[in-house]
Design a protein that fits this description.
32% helix, globular, alpha/beta, 8 helices, Rossmann fold
Length: 259
């Protein structure tokens, strides 16, 4: 192995960032971009700035190989969950994601991985059979159902989901018009506890080690992989978000699943 990949992570303090940190720290040279600072990595590797301020965040990207962009409002760690205020999601999820991609391009970063979300398709859960698959107490369990892959029609039922779809389309734009590779990880149910709960996570759970494996595979994928979207979902008995694309393209092999 040559030198370690220099990885910049935004939102490392969040639930997903903390779930990934142990695996990333042992493998890469990590720096962090955060408003509030980050514990556990050297002081000189922590850049404190607001992601909505493009000039303030630019220095964090100098000398970086790969960016993992997790910072957002409206996710699992947000006080208001997916009902976060629009103003905050506009500056963090829309302006912030553009700023991250543009700064990465300016500094010659080879790949950006964007944290997308299961919120891009949560509308499927309003109707059967998916409604039953995510129910705490299903009225009846369907015998079979169609899986929803990464390229099925989006069905957001929150503005948070809409902002994540914007991120995916921004990723397409940068992948098509620049030399950068931009990959999207649609992170499913990942909470501060590494175990599935009754209800939605019976279908959508992603264990920490499965998410770690998939993220590492995205970071280290061949440079010819310019754009893609992957479901970050463990092999759950009630799975409806089809993770076979990640298996085929990246060699993802989930070790866990909610039964």
């Amino acid at each position: 192995m040559g030198n370690k990949i220099k990885l910049l992570v935004t939102g490392l303090n969040g639930v997903v960032g903390q779930a990934l940190f142990p695996a990333l720290e042992s493998r890469y040279e990590i720096s962090a971009l955060s408003r509030s600072g980050v514990e556990g990595i050297p002081h000189e590797k922590v850049f404190r700035a607001d992601i909505a301020d493009i000039d303030a965040i630019q220095p964090a990207f100098i000398g970086i190989d790969v960016v993992l962009h997790l910072a957002a409002d409206g996710g699992i760690g947000s006080p208001d969950g997916q009902s976060a205020p629009w103003d905050s999601m506009l500056s963090n999820n829309i302006v912030g994601t553009y700023n991250v991609l543009q700064c990465a391009l300016n500094e010659g970063v080879s790949r950006v991985i964007l944290a997308s979300s299961g919120a891009t398709v949560n509308g499927y859960e309003l109707e059967d059979p998916y409604k039953q698959l995510v129910a705490e107490v299903p009225e009846h369990m369907p015998e079979k159902w169609d899986l929803i892959d990464e390229f099925a029609e989006p069905k957001p039922v929150s503005l948070y989901g809409v902002t994540k779809l914007f991120g995916e389309d921004l990723a397409r734009f940068y992948a098509l018009t620049t030399d950068m590779s931009v990959l999207n990880l649609r992170i499913s149910s990942c909470t501060s506890e590494d175990s599935p709960k009754p209800g939605r996570s019976m279908a959508n759970w992603s264990s920490y080690r499965d998410l770690q494996q998939l993220t590492i595979k995205c970071i280290e994928a061949p440079s010819r992989l310019k754009f893609d979207i992957f479901w970050a979902t463990s092999d759950n008995a009630r799975i409806y978000r089809d993770n076979s694309h990640a298996k085929d393209v990246l060699g993802y092999i989930p070790e866990d699943g909610a039964q």
